[in-house]
Amino acid sequence: MLTVNQSNSFAQQNNAYAASLMRSTASSPSPHSVCKCGAMHPSESIDRTKPQAETKVELEDEIPNNKFGRLIEDLKKSLGPDKGLSSEDIDVEKIKEMMELYESDELEWGKYALNDPSRSYTRNGVIDLNGNANLLILVWNPTKSSAIHDHANAHCCMKILKGTLKESLYDFPEKVGNELVPKKETLLHCEDVGYISDDIGLHKISNPLDNEVSVSLHLYTPPYASLYGCSMYEAGNGKRHHVDMSKYYSYQGKLINPKDSSAC
């Protein structure tokens, strides 16, 4: 069992090279710090034609030679080789089935699960799947949570790799001024797979464990949030704020944004 004092064990696995990467990152732009535009309620449209910046990926993504790597290969194949899928093109049930079939093994995914105990959670990029999806590993510190947020008109499939997470589901607020009250709360345990889209509503993810870090694998497809941002909502009054989600804490197991990575 992972204690609070051990809650950065994933980061400790990478500290030997992370420190040197922090120095090099400070002097060069991240290859995975991309643009942002507004993310809207499903009834509104997203302007996907005006990214604020465009940065080339300088390194080829590596796929591990293990069961986790085979999951990545299967997801790439399912999403196709050509960039440009829309939300309607995605076979969500097939994606969920692939994630359900993968049996979590920390020895396989642990290198990607960098953590910072001073944050609520970290967003660690694993791979870009043909420009049609982002695969991320999120590390959740004990008793911490995300904000209430949407998913920028995309699909999000989430598998619990370690620990337990609680999903609180909300309706989109009809107007600003009312407290957002969850309409459903679900505990997701290791190996469980959840799904959310803006057609379902907003949600908040939290780690209910007092002394253990929880870890989840997220597939966002299409990758609208990382390209255009998403929206978070204040719990007390439903006010919406745009959030830039383009900056990962790490990518492919390498720390790239230790100070200003994106979260909501």
UniProtKB/TrEMBL annotation:
Q: Identify the domain of life.
A: Eukaryota
Return the broad EC class. oxidoreductase
* Protein biosynthesis among keywords: no
Q: Which cofactor does it need?
A: Fe cation
Reaction catalysis annotation = L-cysteine + O2 = 3-sulfino-L-alanine + H(+)
EC assignment: 1.13.11.20
Q: Which Gene3D superfamilies match?
A: Jelly Rolls
- Please provide the Gene Ontology terms (biological process) for this protein: L-cysteine catabolic process
Co-factor binding details: Binds 1 Fe cation per subunit.
For this UniProt entry, which residues form the secretion signal?
A: none
Q: Name one GO molecular function term.
A: cysteine dioxygenase activity
Whether Metal-binding counts among this entry's keywords is yes
- Which key words tag this protein in UniProt? Dioxygenase, Iron, Metal-binding, Oxidoreductase, Thioether bond
For this protein, the parts annotated as crossing the membrane are none
For this chain, the site of the 3'-(S-cysteinyl)-tyrosine (Cys-Tyr) cross-link is: 156-220
The residues that the entry says bind Fe cation are 149, 151, 203
Q: Which CDD domains match?
A: cupin_CDO
Family membership, please give it.
Belongs to the cysteine dioxygenase family.
What's the protein name? Cysteine dioxygenase
